[in-house]
Structures are given as C-alpha cells and as structure tokens.
Write a structure and sequence with these properties.
The chain is of the alpha/beta class. It contains 14 helices and eight strands. Strand 7, helix 12 and strand 8 (276-279) form a beta-alpha-beta unit. The longest helix is centred in the middle third of the chain and has 15 residues, at 105-119. It is globular.
C-alpha cells in the first residue's frame, strides 16, 4: 500500500472549509445558470437568491444539505415559462443565519413569507423539495393567500422521519466524518443511478458536489442543518395543519426514495386529495437524476391545479 498517497487523500478529504475556493466554485456554477444572484435580507436572515426568467412567479426551495445550485439541471427548462426565485435556505449555501436565537419553524416560515413578498409580484407557485417541501407546506398552511399553487417533491413532514436503514447509516457516517468518500457513499444510496448522474453532469457535478461538501464543513453548517431537521423533519407536520392548506397542492415522488418514503406520499394523497405523480427509477433527488421527468411532473401537477393555466411550452 502507498501510505503517502493514502495520507494525502485523507488530508484532502478532511480539509476544513475554504471560503475563497467555495466562492470561486459558486461563481463558476452560476455562470452556467441563466439566473442572476441577488443578496436580500428576510426575517433578519441574509439570503442568497437566484432570480430571473419570464412568466408567472415560481419559488424553488432545495433540500437539506443542498443549495439553490442543486436546481442547475431544472432551471434552464423552467426559465422560458416562469419568473424564478431560487434561494439558499437559511444557514445553507451562501445564506447566513439570524442574530440571536437559533432557527425555528416560525422564523423560517416568516423568512419565506418576507422573501415571497419581496420577490414575487403575484402569488407564486411554490415548489419545495425534501426539507424545502416541509418549509413550503408549513408556510402554505399559515399563509395560503400568498401562494397560487404548491408542489411538494419528496417532502419531509408528511409522515415519521424513517429513512431506509442503509441510507440512514450512510448519512450518519457523513455527519461524523464529512469527506468525499462518505459524501459519495451517501449519494450512492440516495440515487438509483449515481454513476450515471455523475457522468451526465461532468464538470458541473464535480463543482456542485465539492461546493456542498465545503458548505457543510463551514462554521455553523452542520448546526444549521441539525436545527432545520429538528424543526421540519424529525416530527410530522400535524394533520390539522396540513388540512388548512387551501392552495391547490400536488405531490411528486421518486419511487425508490430511501429518505422520504413513497408510502407517506400515498397516504397524504389519499387523505387530502392531493394528486400524486411518481417518477420511476428515481431516488430522492429527481432534480438531478431525472430533471426532464421532474419538469414534466410539475407541468402535469400545475395543469391539474384548479384555477392555474398550464404555462406555454
């Protein structure tokens, strides 16, 4: 065994966050996204937001441990028909944290309410993935008048937080030792065809994966993630709260999602009458694994939404 090379790989994998390198990586990834980055403050939280496009407003909320850049394969398919607002969630990516008390569900839903008011000329369609789906659902339950339609993609909060055991173990390993190896092992459990996604994305994948890894290693990154999980994932959203959602609501789910299990989507669809669109051969990250199928599911979901016209193709 070449111990010199092994040690070098270990040092590189365990290196602390490099803000300058992360900024450069973010800048390179943004060059391939047809949106403009803005810095806003909502509910006292400094927020990085990607904005642009043409048409009615749509807000895209990413999942836990990810960033707005994760929508890189979906945004080009949406900008011809939608005015997009794509923020980094509080404490994730290039968004900061509020002064004072840690993140709470009330603070984060107030953040989304202020962000919508500042960026959307009309009530938007809100698309929330994973933890972003739980944020969107709780916001819709409280401020349904601010939303034209709601699309929840593999959302947390519709049932108990019970990921598939092997996936849960890979997440725990990633949290304990945040390295390229543990990251890739976790993502390999997250997607049906992890190697295929990496090959299709090429350099974009390398930049995106490295940026996410750096942001998790950044001071406060893991703590912010834990706070968001506690507030929006570890306990189901109360059924009476979900029942208050008045905006037309649809569900999109990867059939093989190991994190937010399909059975919870099926149960919610039956209980609340929300249409459910299932993407086959897909894990927890349809926006990366099957972007075309996700956009098709969004179009179908919105076409079914009462009072919402399907955008021009």
């Amino acid at each position: 065994m070449d111990t010199t090379r092994t040690s070098a790989r270990t040092r590189k994998a365990a290196a602390p966050a490099d803000p300058a390198a992360a900024t450069d990586t973010r800048r390179r990834l943004l060059a391939g996204i047809p949106l403009t980055e803005h810095r806003r403050v909502a509910a006292g939280i400094p927020t990085a937001v990607l904005e642009g496009g043409s048409g009615p407003p749509m807000v895209l909320l990413h999942g836990i441990g990810q960033t707005a850049l994760g929508w890189i394969r979906v945004v080009p398919r949406l900008v011809p028909s939608w005015s997009l607002v794509v923020p980094d969630l509080p404490g994730q990516g290039a968004s900061g944290l509020p002064d004072g008390p840690p993140l709470t569900a009330d603070r984060v839903t107030a953040w989304l309410d202020e962000l919508v008011a500042a960026t959307c000329a009309a009530p938007p369609v809100v698309v929330g993935h994973n933890l972003g789906g739980a944020v969107a659902a709780r916001h819709a339950a409280r401020r349904g008048d601010r939303i034209a339609a709601l699309v929840l993609v593999d959302p947390f909060g519709l049932g108990p937080f019970r990921p598939e055991p092997r996936f849960a173990l890979s997440v725990a390993a990633y949290q304990l030792r945040t390295t390229e190896r543990t990251r890739d092992r976790m993502l390999g459990r997250c997607m049906v065809d992890f190697d295929g996604v990496r090959q299709e994305m090429g350099g974009d994948w390398d930049g995106l994966a490295d940026y996410v890894l750096d942001r998790v290693r950044a001071p406060g990154g893991k703590a912010a993630g834990r706070a968001l999980l506690k507030e929006f994932a570890l306990r189901p959203i109360p059924q009476e709260e979900l029942a208050r959602i008045s905006a037309p609501t649809s569900l999109v789910w990867g059939r093989q999602d190991p994190e937010a299990r399909l059975r919870f989507g099926e149960s919610a669809a039956a209980r609340y009458g929300w249409p459910l669109h299932v993407i086959d051969d897909c894990g927890a990250d349809a926006h990366l694994e099957h972007p075309e199928a996700l956009v098709a599911a969004l179009d179908a979901a919105l076409a079914q939404s009462a009072g919402h016209e399907e955008p021009p193709s």
